[in-house]
Specification:
With about 270 residues, the protein is of the alpha/beta class. About 45% of the residues lie in helices and about 10% in strands. It is built from eleven helices and six strands. It has a six-stranded mixed sheet with strand order 1-3-4-5-2-6, sandwiched between helices. The longest helix has 18 residues. The two termini are about 40 Å apart. The mean pLDDT is about 85. The structure holds adenosine-5'-triphosphate (ATP). The site of adenosine-5'-triphosphate has 20 residues, from helix 3, helix 7 and helix 9. Adenosine-5'-triphosphate binds next to helix 3, helix 7 and helix 9.
Length: about 270
């Protein structure tokens, strides 16, 4: 019961249209979950196993969490979030119980999605800190539940990681996380869409050139684009506290000072 309070059950309010671009990933992700739910007879007819777990991997701030939430919202699924590191730190000694609790709750809330964020926390490579044994036990409990005798009916397991390179291979075997999708940094078109979504909510001047903003933000994550739009608003306020609009120049200035966290070394993981 003490562990249960930590499991957050929600009905998120993120729609596919709130996610700028990334169309191909949206499509593949939708298929993975919606087809088995909506067309189970096709899977039987063709003798195809629906994916048991879906792993989203890619650099930070590029919409993995948004994707999982949009899927739940649009398909009307209950959404349970579990953060990998929390399973280790908050539940030391109770970790296996906590995992069982997560799955019990997910079954009770079916149709549902369990979202394991930062799942790599459970798969730290051996030979180091004292948390390793806890991570190991949590991981094998997770695998037990996924392989389990009790079938997971209408429960979809989605996990996210920035570090596929440290993931335990046992997790990505068939019948576990057997659908693996790369969620990369937004391309030009996706960046334009992310700006478009942000700008809709802002009061911007006529001189605004979204195309140029999208071109100049190559290498930025979606999260960084959202942050720099906020920064542009602050810059406009700094310039004139009674300003009614944010101008193109404010966005250009915000882009200059935007930190790009996704490095080429980081992209080499993927
Ligand atoms: P992390 O690996 O750091 O957990 P993530 O890939 O799960 O990151 P999200 O949490 O989905 O990233 O995105 C962070 C924030 O960035 C979102 O809340 C949203 O504001 C913004 N964002 C990222 N990508 C997009 C996008 N394609 N469209 C709109 N907003 C985006």
């Amino acid at each position: 019961p003490s562990a249960m309070r930590e499991i957050i059950l929600e009905v998120p309010k993120v729609y596919w249209n709130d996610i700028g671009g990334q169309e191909e990933i949206k499509q593949k992700f939708k298929e993975s979950v919606e087809w088995p739910l909506k067309h189970p007879e096709m899977f039987t007819r063709f003798s195809i196993h629906p994916p048991k777990g879906i792993l989203l991997y890619g650099p930070p701030g590029c919409s993995k969490t948004l994707m999982a939430k949009a899927l739940a919202t649009e398909a009307g699924l209950n959404f349970i979030t579990v953060k990998g590191p929390e399973l280790l730190s908050k539940w030391v000694g109770e970790s296996e119980k906590a995992i069982r609790e997560v799955f019990r709750k997910a079954r009770a809330a079916a149709p549902s999605i369990v979202f394991f964020d930062e799942i790599d926390a459970l798969t730290i490579k051996r030979g180091g800190s004292g948390q390793i044994s806890v991570a190991d036990r949590v991981l094998s409990q997770l695998l037990n539940e996924m392989d389990g005798i009790e079938p997971l009916v209408n429960v979809t397991i989605v996990a996210a990681t920035n570090r596929p390179d440290v993931m335990d291979k046992a997790l990505i075997r068939p019948g576990r996380f057997d659908r693996i999708l790369y969620v990369g940094p937004p391309d030009l078109l996706s960046r334009r869409e992310i700006f478009r979504i942000q700008l809709q909510k802002m009061s911007v001047a006529e001189d605004l050139d979204v195309e140029e903003l999208a071109e100049k933000t190559e290498g930025c994550s979606g999260a960084e684009i959202v942050a720099l739009c906020q920064e542009a608003g602050l810059l406009a306020m700094e310039e004139d506290l009674e300003a009614t609009e944010i101008h193109h120049r404010h966005f250009l200035k915000a882009i200059e000072s935007c930190t790009r966290r996704i490095s080429s070394e980081m992209l080499a993981y993927y």
